Amino acid sequence: MAEQRQARPDRPAAGPFVHVRLQEEIERLKHEPAWRSGDRNAITLTKEPALRVVLMALHKGARVHEHRADGSLTLHVVSGAVRFRAAGRDVELGPGEVVVLDPAVAHELEALAESACLLTLTA
Predict the structure, then answer these.
(1) Is the pLDDT of residue 4 over 60?
(2) Residue 97 placed within a domain
(3) In 10 A of CB 91, how many CB atoms?
(4) Left (φ > 0), alpha (ψ -120 to 50) or beta: where does 36 sit?
(5) Rounded to whole angstroms, what are the CA distances from 119 to 1, 3, 4, 44, 57?
(6) Which of 26, 27, 54, 59 has the fewest Cβ atoms surrounding its Cβ within 10 A?
(7) Residue 119 contacts by C-beta under 8 Å, 6 or more apart in sequence?
(8) Confidence (pLDDT) at 17
(9) Strand partners, 111
(10) 31 within a domain of the structure (yes/no)
């Protein structure tokens, strides 16, 4: 049975100013039960009506199967390596690389190594 995900009370849902130390958050994700028992873990760093920023930690081989987002998105690889497929393209991304995707474009992701990615979604 899947673990019940608990809201993290120390995470701001929104605010006029949000500061995040990505390496600290990645380490936190890797110490949680979802990381130990699954293929990935994630935390929403901020959630505004028109903007959401999510930090994902992925084990090698983890997949986010094909889906579509309502708004535009960016995927920034912080560490590791991923394969991103969208719009008839297949690209391998490493640290410091970013893809930008228009709304409603089907896409999928595979971790080629243990990785961390920052996902930004717009409404």
Answers:
(1) no
(2) yes
(3) 11
(4) alpha
(5) 27, 23, 22, 9, 11
(6) 27
(7) 53, 54, 55, 56, 73, 74, 75, 76
(8) 84
(9) 82
(10) no
Instruction: Write down the pTM of the prediction.
Output: 0.89
* CATH number assigned to the domain comprising residue 72: 2.60.120.10
| Boundaries of domain holding 93 | 39-122
Strands (E), the chain: 40-48, 51-58, 63-67, 73-79, 82-86, 89-93, 98-101, 107-111, 115-122
118, two tokens: 């920052």
Residue 116 falls within a domain, yes or no? yes
Residue 51 included in any domain: yes
Per-residue pLDDT tens over the stretch 20-69: 899 999 999 999 999 999 999 999 999 889 999 999 999 999 999 999 99
Cβ atoms 29, 35 nearer than 8 A: yes
Q: What is the pLDDT of residues 83-100, one digit of tens each?
A: 999 999 999 999 999 999
